[in-house]
Amino acid sequence: MAHLELQLYEYNRWANQQIFNRLKELPEDVYRQKIQSVFPSIAHVLAHVYLSDLGWIEVFSGKSLNQSLMLAEQLKEQTQLKEIEEMETMFFELSERYKSFLHQDEHIDKPLVIENPSGDLKTSVSELVPHVVNHGTYHRGNIAAMLRQIGYASAPTDYGVYLYLKTK
């Protein structure tokens, strides 16, 4: 992986898998347990992250931000209803799509114009991959806090841990 964007995305994939592995160790009801937090359940957090990641790969692939947001809204309810194993598979398949896309050099520096009512953003895929990763990190933090709130530890998902384990 020559590009930092690819390494960051691979870290994101690894960190998401750490969360799935941890959740599968816990009692089954933890995934949907109602929690007084930013999201009503861990299932809702994972659905949000998945739909956001799906939306960005759609934008990277040529759809407008509005089209991407409409797709996410259409899929929101059914995604929130997925069981943890189904979500894990969906995350894996989406990460494969990202890896395939990002391994094509012409895509990394592909210019993008994100149309927004308050003004267009001229950017590139390489500038937005860290946003995708940062968004995932933020919400893995939500999951860690939610797990602590109900009496469970999370899984280590820090970038430094990833880099360390990668060398082993």
Automatic annotation (TrEMBL):
<dbReference type="Pfam" id="PF05163">
    <property type="entry name" value="DinB"/>
</dbReference>
<comment type="similarity">
    <text>Belongs to the DinB family.</text>
</comment>
<keyword id="KW-0479">Metal-binding</keyword>
<protein>
    <submittedName>
        <fullName>Nuclease inhibitor</fullName>
    </submittedName>
</protein>
<dbReference type="InterPro" id="IPR007837">
    <property type="entry name" value="DinB"/>
</dbReference>
<dbReference type="InterPro" id="IPR034660">
    <property type="entry name" value="DinB/YfiT-like"/>
</dbReference>
